[in-house]
Predict the structure of Conserved domain protein.
Amino acid sequence: MILYISFEFGILYVFYCEKFAILDVYEKQGIKNGHPQNKMKGEAFKTPLATAYPDCRLVVTKETMTVEGMIKIVYDLLKEKLNIAKITFTSGVNTGSAEFDTKNDIERCPLCGISLNEEGVCPKCGYKKQ
């Protein structure tokens, strides 16, 4: 089974399907390109854990959509573009967090985690490095 996620008209649709025929259903029902007022379209991507179909506002995942699954998907998608140290997802009362090894050493504020500027000052909270 594959999990399908679609976001349209402010509603998140999540369902399981046995076959990949859902794209054909979107085409036949005339909803493949979304509502005419919805001009926002995400970027198409394909990773081992998820594939995005922007024309259908659809993301097919191979992970269960728990906070832990979202962390895996987001890290897999952004690990080459960003130097991710930590990801936290919250959904209702459920929270998941994971820390990752970073590629470079960035001085960070111990209070909020934002990188310090050249003078050793946090631009967010004003913390000054001693």
Residues 65 and 100 are 20 Å apart (CA to CA). The chain is about 15% helix and 25% strand. The chain has a mean pLDDT of 78. The longest helix spans residues 67-78.
